[in-house]
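User: tokens in, sequence out, please.
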């Protein structure tokens, strides 16, 4: 079976080196190794696992903090992955699912907080 190679061209929409090398080097320095990034994500996942045992407003604050960090990781990983492919898998298979889970957790905590607010209103109207 013949091997095919796909190469972009400027007429075909390919733009080489969209991200300047200085941004790639800075991102690499700020991210650390792929193992270090994985470790940071694993720590966030451990905390998310314990959200069920926290107050809803605390969960919402942690979701906001972790979402901000995941967005930062996403951007930096995107900058570096063109030159270092080992980072792409982290972005697509670790950061994206974590961001989706944080959104679900935030929504759930927000709903629980609203139920508590409604309960308080009901109690107030009874007295």
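Assistant: Sequence out:
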């Amino acid at each position: 079976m013949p091997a095919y190679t796909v190469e972009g061209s400027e007429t075909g929409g390919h733009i080489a080196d969209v991200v300047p090398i200085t941004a790639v080097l800075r991102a690499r320095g700020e991210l650390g190794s792929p193992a270090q990034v994985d470790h940071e994500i694993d720590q966030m996942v451990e905390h998310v696992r314990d959200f069920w045992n926290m107050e809803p407003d605390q969960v919402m604050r942690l979701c906001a903090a972790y979402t901000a960090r995941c967005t930062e990781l996403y951007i930096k990983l995107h900058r570096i992955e063109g030159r270092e492919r080992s980072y792409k898998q982290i972005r697509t298979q670790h950061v994206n699912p974590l961001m989706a889970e944080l959104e679900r957790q935030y929504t759930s905590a927000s709903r629980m907080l609203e139920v508590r607010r409604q309960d308080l209103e009901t109690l107030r109207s009874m007295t």
